Amino acid sequence: MRPTVLAFLCAILAVPAAFAQSAGYRIQPGDSLAVTVLEDDTLNRQVLVLPDGRISVPLAGTVVAAGKTVDAVENAIADRLASNFAVRPSVFVSVAGLAQPFTGTFPIYVLGQVNNPGEVQVQPGTTLLQAVALGGGLARFAATKRIQLRRTDSSTGKERLYLFNYNAVERGGSIESMITLRQGDVILVPERHLFE
After folding, report:
1. Percent of the chain at pLDDT above 70?
2. Cα(111)–Cα(133) distance, rounded to whole angstroms?
3. How many Å apart are CA 150 and CA 1, to the nearest integer?
4. What pTM value is reported for the model?
5. What 3-state class would DSSP assign to 184?
6. Which residue among 3, 26, 138, 170 is buried most deeply as judged by most CB within 10 Å?
7. Biggest alpha carbon–alpha carbon distance for the chain
């Protein structure tokens, strides 16, 4: 690769990190921070901002980083470390990597009598009826009056069962068709009985 092309690529890759060093950038969960303490290089490390917005630094404990500027995090760490040194330490924080953006999709599962069963990535706001369509539509022997939506409550861990009647939708609609899906929802289309 020619030196000019390599230099150009390096410059492009450095733009997000350079932007993050600006005074206005607010640290986000998922960012990687490089922490340097001039007085004690054993404290130097790269840390990940956890989903709760905190980072962990030896001798300083946990420090809230999300929503703060780099300067504010530097000051917070230095304040926490001050009691361990004769004079307030010199702490430098830089953004080593930015959080990966949310892709905008999440997984749901469509099982049973659909043409393409399995995991399906859906957008927020996707309805149950749309998810059945994403699963390839109903198969020939689908029990269209007994489609199930199984959802696990994240706070209690209990599963709730919702029934959906596709035949009612064909006759003019039903409010159940507008159920919006959540991550991990399972849509089960059972096989119809002989005289169903």
Report:
1. 82
2. 12
3. 54
4. 0.48
5. coil
6. 138
7. 85
